[in-house]
Amino acid sequence: MNKFRILLYVMLFSLVGCHPEGANVKQGLDRAAQIMEQDPDTAFIILENIQTNQMNEAQLAEYNLLCTKVNEDKNVHHSSDEQIRQAVSYFEVNGNRLQKTQAYYYLACVESDLDRKQEAEMHFKEAIKLATLTENYNYMTKICRRCSLYYQKNGNFDEALEMERKAYASQLMLNDSKDHSTTILSSALGMFGVLSLLLGLLWKKNRYAYAQLNTFKEEIRQKDTQSDKLMLQCEHLEEKYQSLQLQIYESSPVITKVRQFKDRNVLSAKIPSFSERDWNELLRLQEGVYGIVSKLKEIGPKLTEEDLRVCAFLREGVQPSCFADLMKLTVETLTRRISRIKTEKLMLVNSKESLEEIVKSL
């Protein structure tokens, strides 16, 4: 059935293409745009059968934008930016905000495929800025998620995480706007009921009140259903957020460097380099993913920066003998310090767990 529909479109637009003045070019573009989301293959066939030499500048810009969009939706790798740049040049001057948003968004997608990183990032940001002004939260969500994939592809996980947060916020705004529409509709119905009463239909008062009660119950049920769906979405996004944070943590060069201390030869005279910046990044990562620093300070407010550094290495399973010289201490001195951290600063004298086990359990 799907093949038959595509064949029908091919025959139809082949006939349209033969029209000497191209009067149906606009119809073809409108039809392709209409079915693009549901049936990109058919939209592609329609676009292929439109004669570009019959188009004016506005129609050519729309055509080029749709061609880029259909390739993006079909995950076809973009090999040229000629089409989309013509669309951008036109819509920059003559387009509305939504058309400019789409033009910059698909230009960024093309530039991403062409490995033009700076240009792609700039145009993704421009598309997000314009989408914010249009308050088109559905499109805003789409752009932010695509931009997040772009950042992940290039290893910029902090920026990717920020884009996921923006996409999540846009999704919430989209849900709120839908709920707001339902509220407006309900208010309008309520006002209609009041006007009906004022017109003298008092004999229907009891029936109306009963109907309103049922309507209210149905709205409550729908709200509960929407709340459950939103809760599931939140849980999914939270899991995705935590997974992305853990991925950033595990792939961090600082964490890799810390774990190298596990395999270090204790008798080696050479101490692996570990700068002040490395220490700060290690504590920042452990706080961001596990909340280690704030949890330790809540239990033991007297903990010093050096104490936190010791706990950070223990959290990664590095034994005192492997990093004592990094702390400029003997193994025995570091071991005594670890004991004092547990008993005197964290006040866990009666705990049978080691400090390493305590830190890992936080």
Automatic annotation (TrEMBL):
The keyword Coiled coil applies. InterPro entries: TPR-like_helical_dom_sf (IPR011990). The chain crosses the membrane at residues 184-203. Residues 220-247 form a coiled coil. The keyword Coiled coil applies. It comes from the Bacteria. Keywords: Coiled coil, Membrane, Transmembrane, Transmembrane helix. This is Tetratricopeptide repeat protein. It comes from Bacteroides faecalis.
